[in-house]
Amino acid sequence: MAVWIFIVVGFFLQPVFSNHPNIILIFADDLGYGDLGCYGHPTSLTPNLDWMASRGLRFKDFYSTAAVCSPSRASLLTGRYQTRSGVYPSVFFPSSRGGLPLSEVTIAEVLQSQGYETAIIGKWHLGFGLNGTFLPTRQGFQHFLGVPFSHDQGPCRTLTCFPLNTQCYGTCDIGEAPLPVFLNEEIIQQPVNFTGLIPMYLEFSKSFINKAVNDKKPYFLYYAAHHTHYPQFASAKYTGSSPRGRYGDALLEFDGSIGELLQTVRESGTLDNTLIFFTSDNGPETMRMERGGSSGHLKCGKSTTYEGGMREPAIAYWEGKIKPGVTSELGSILDILPTLAALTGAPLPNVTLDGYDLSEFLLLGHKSPRNTIHYYPPSIDPKTGIFALRVGKYKAHFYTQGAFHSETTPDPDCRITALLTAHDPPLLFDLHLDPAENYNLLNRGIPTDLAPVLHEILQTRDQFESSMEYGESQINLGTDTSLRPCCNPECTPKPSCCQCKN
Fold first, then answer.
1. What angle do CA 176, 135, 71 make, to 5 degrees?
2. Has 432 been annotated as catalytic?
3. CATH T-level topology, domain 21-371
């Protein structure tokens, strides 16, 4: 059990722990704001996340930094906008030359300096590179079981995504090598067996947790789920169990995996010394229709800078430490690194950080120090900079653009036919009154009472843009097909021959 000591510094109470808390960071993939039962979906079965929400703090205004995978994962792990590390535009592919620069300091490296055991299970998607240069084992993670990129970045037409030889829905990237599963830096399965993937992840996760507890070492487990990204898949235990169809089965398996992690922590006797934080990388891929997730009442989805693309479900749970409730305070994936550093006494990296320490907000009920959200598009261009900015309850769009990933919705603003459009004055929305971004407050000019609001927003944008230092784009370094992971590197013809027996 963690022991609390309070030191009075000025007018604040600073919590200090006699031992380091264990940390489980759960990151969903393409999960929409409206996909969970506790966020209002009528047919989603998510009992474990709903339980966490009832026992923890559920965020209504929590944000990613990007509406696609790689940039948001870079921000999560570094506490820095993806622009600083060069993880833009778009995402990494199996043959990408670049990756998250090794000079970047990750959460795993920060916590390892405090004696933490560190592991990542699932999706990395921050580059592979020559001889695995950019694998997580080179970025502070002592253990890695998972896939270096997205699970649709390989052929899936002939793979089984559900039991009884139910083939994967869709075709994915047919020209790529079969999807590999890595244990640290070695391929242990190629192509992946989707129906057995999550049980394998959970067995490894439980072993990692129990060993760390038995060795009396604090641990950091980054559970980077593949669910509920396309193509959806599930093991036999969950197939056909959800009224929401195949997407619901995948979501139910994701929720079930969280339940098994919770049970493992309970059985280890460390529930009151374990912080569990859950959120998602970006909004849903509505182009997949019923298989694409839901933004709920928010506008659009993946690849857009509307709320549906970047506002995410998030839950912070720490038994006996975080008071249960629901909050409209602002938070971001950028804030996780500085918050964990504060909770563990770890020194912050000697770089520019864009996150805030939320520890006093989470543990003592103070206001969140965050008051702004900056919205970058996937196709970041330093000449245009951010597309939108939230200050307090107001959000201004300087540019808008639809996206292929947000197709099929009835809203024309979401579709790929909604071309890049500059707005001067910007579109302005009150997100407290209008979270769906339906009513532009400046559609008939600038009301007198909103002039100071607009001035503050423009001033905040200009200050942010002038201070941003764009790192060299790692994605624009290009591709090299010889970099694709292959368990049988001497085989021919590639990439189809890259297969090994389980």
1. 75
2. no
3. Alkaline Phosphatase, subunit A (3.40.720)
Provide the percentage of residues in the chain whose pLDDT is more than 70.
Answer: 96
69 is a catalytic site residue: yes
Q: What is the pLDDT of residues 13-60, one digit of tens each?
A: 344 444 699 999 999 999 999 999 999 999 999 999 999 999 999 999
CA dist., res. 185 & res. 471, Å (int)? 27
Q: What is the pTM of this model?
A: 0.95
Fold of the domain built from segment(s) 375-471: Arylsulfatase, C-terminal domain (3.30.1120)
Condensed to tens digits (0 to 9), the pLDDT of residues 53-111 reads: 999 999 999 999 999 999 999 999 999 999 999 999 999 999 999 999 999 999 999 99
Helix (H, G, I), strand (E, B) or coil at 201: helix
Residues 254-268: tens digit of each pLDDT: 999 999 999 999 999
Domain residue extents for the chain? 21-371, 375-471
Q: What is the DSSP string of 277-326?
A: EEEESS---GGGGGGS---TTSS--TTSSSHHHHEEEEEEE-TTTSPPEE
- Name the active-site residue from 20, 41, 125, 151: 125
Check 69, 161, 168, 414 and give the catalytic one: 69
